[in-house]
């Protein structure tokens, strides 16, 4: 075997990070409805055109306590837009690494002809941000990732960038947690939502997500608190706990089962200290305990939604948490998302 190239090393590093950064912002509907486009709290301080359709914005975000990046995949006619021109919007929420570029590098959204007349908005977020306003050991404050999305990203898009009121959302890993949590807690925000390999019932496996945060140098207890002391906070953010809010929202749920699949790479998931219990409990043949846990939570939420009569489609497949299945699963979810945007 030859020496790994720089490209191979980059792929390996990305795989390792994505394997532990498992996939929110949750806010009452009244707070969102009070955030009119004219009241956008964030400020765009730079715009950069990357190609004929892709535009990258740098946003000064009070909610995050710093700057963030939002990428736009623009629709036909967008460059010549006039005041009042509006397009349906697909919001794509980043996974735990916070990297918005995943949507163009792994998911290849720019190749989808169905999105030529849709404004696609891809905001980044802080590392392991969980699309959540962090508890911060009871002090609150930045990063307030849900507030960033609801009070900054959405209003800015609707005020200055042609985003209309027809919205759908999808997310990978933690982004799926965010898309479903927002849809469940903010009535009418999204016409449909999809989650790929996401922690959709994290209170069920708190050690997994706390250990994953520690593994990448993040204080997991600052996000939701201690699950045994601040369990009400964990429940308040948990999409499964708010499944009733999705009864009238089409939902697509997809996850691997943690066993080797056809799109997995050669590199196994790294061992994450603190997850030994879930490794021991995993089914025979599981090589990605992170994805196995996401798969279990996905099944649970799917069953819960089905029991409520909600319009849900669940796809569990052999595969790990590398993110390589998102390309396929986004395309499976796209007809549902597009139907919501055409209403």
Automatic annotation (TrEMBL):
The keyword Hydrolase applies. Gene3D superfamilies: alpha/beta hydrolase. GO terms for molecular function: hydrolase activity. SUPFAM superfamilies: alpha/beta-Hydrolases. It catalyses: an acyl-CoA + a 1,2-diacyl-sn-glycerol = a triacyl-sn-glycerol + CoA; 2 alpha,alpha'-trehalose 6-mycolate = alpha,alpha'-trehalose 6,6'-bismycolate + alpha,alpha-trehalose. It is an enzyme of class 2 (transferase). Pfam families: Esterase. Transmembrane segments: none annotated. PROSITE patterns: TAT. Its EC number is 2.3.1.122, 2.3.1.20. Keywords: Acyltransferase, Hydrolase, Transferase. InterPro entries: AB_hydrolase_fold, Esterase-like, Mycobacterial_A85_antigen, TAT_signal. Belongs to the mycobacterial A85 antigen family. This is Acyl-CoA:diacylglycerol acyltransferase. It comes from Streptomyces atroolivaceus.
């Amino acid at each position: 075997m030859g020496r790994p190239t720089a490209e191979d090393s980059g792929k390996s590093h990305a795989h390792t990070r994505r394997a532990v950064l498992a996939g929110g912002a949750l806010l009452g509907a009244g707070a969102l409805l009070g955030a009119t486009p004219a009241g956008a709290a964030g400020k765009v301080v730079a715009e950069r055109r990357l190609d004929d359709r892709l535009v990258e914005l740098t946003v000064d975000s009070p909610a995050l306590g710093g700057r963030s990046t939002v990428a736009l995949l623009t629709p036909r006619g967008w460059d010549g837009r006039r005041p009042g021109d509006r397009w349906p919007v697909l919001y794509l929420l980043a996974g735990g690494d916070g990297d918005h570029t995943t949507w163009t590098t792994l998911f290849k959204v720019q190749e989808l002809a169905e999105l030529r007349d849709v404004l696609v908005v891809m905001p980044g977020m802080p590392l392991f941000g969980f699309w959540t306003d962090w508890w911060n050991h009871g002090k609150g404050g930045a990063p307030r990732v849900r507030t960033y999305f609801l009070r900054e990203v959405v209003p800015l898009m609707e005020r200055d960038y042609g985003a209309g009121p027809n919205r759908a959302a999808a997310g990978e890993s933690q982004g799926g947690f965010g898309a479903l949590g927002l849809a469940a807690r903010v009535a009418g925000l999204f016409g449909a939502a999809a989650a790929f390999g996401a922690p959709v019932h994290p209170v069920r496996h708190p050690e997994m997500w706390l250990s994953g945060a520690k593994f990448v140098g993040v204080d997991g207890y600052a996000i939701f608190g201690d699950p045994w002391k601040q369990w009400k906070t964990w429940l308040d953010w948990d999409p499964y706990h708010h499944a009733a809010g999705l009864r009238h929202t089409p939902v697509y749920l997809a996850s691997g089962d943690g066993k080797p699949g056809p799109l997995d790479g050669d590199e196994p998931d790294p061992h994450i200290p603190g997850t030994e219990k879930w490794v021991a409990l995993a089914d025979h043949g599981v090589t990605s305990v992170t994805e196995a846990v996401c798969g279990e939570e996905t099944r649970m939420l799917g069953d819960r939604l089905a029991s409520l009569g909600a319009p849900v489609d669940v796809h569990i497949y052999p595969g790990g948490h590398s993110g390589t299945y998102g390309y396929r699963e986004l395309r499976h979810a796209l007809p549902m998302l597009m139907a919501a945007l055409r209403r």
